[in-house]
């Protein structure tokens, strides 16, 4: 017998929510990247000043960087929690 808490069965809504969450972040990053590339070309073709172009690119790619950074932080915390669980399991089985 293990000390694992009993997990309720995963329902259809939870599966849809997880699937949507798994698709939303990459889709957002792709859209941000594509829109920034298109806007970069548009800024050049429009003849805007370099200051306007630099401000837009800084904002757009800064936002993408924040999304990537948040995902990396989330994955790091998830990996740490998983490692701590595995360490606790190994200690309980070995000791």
Provide a brief overview of the structure.
This protein is mainly alpha-helical and 95 residues long. It has two helices and no strands.
Attribute tags:
mainly alpha; 95 residues
Write the layout of secondary structure elements.
Layout: H1 12-46, H2 50-94
Helix pairs in contact: 1-2
Give a short account of the largest sheet: none
Order of helices and strands: HH
Oligomer: single chain
Q: Which word captures the global form?
A: elongated
Please characterize this protein's 3D structure.
The protein is mainly α and 95 residues long. The protein is built from 2 helices and no strands. The longest helix is centred in the last third of the chain and has 45 residues.
């Amino acid at each position: 017998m293990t000390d694992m808490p009993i997990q309720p069965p995963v329902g259809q809504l939870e599966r849809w929510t997880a699937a949507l969450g798994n698709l939303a972040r990459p889709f957002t990053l792709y859209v941000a990247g594509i829109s920034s590339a298109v806007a970069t070309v548009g800024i050049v073709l429009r003849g805007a000043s370099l200051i306007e172009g630099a401000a837009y690119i800084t904002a757009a790619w800064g936002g993408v960087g924040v999304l990537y950074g948040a995902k990396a932080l989330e994955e790091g915390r998830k990996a740490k929690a998983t490692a701590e669980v595995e360490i606790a399991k190994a200690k309980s089985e070995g000791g």
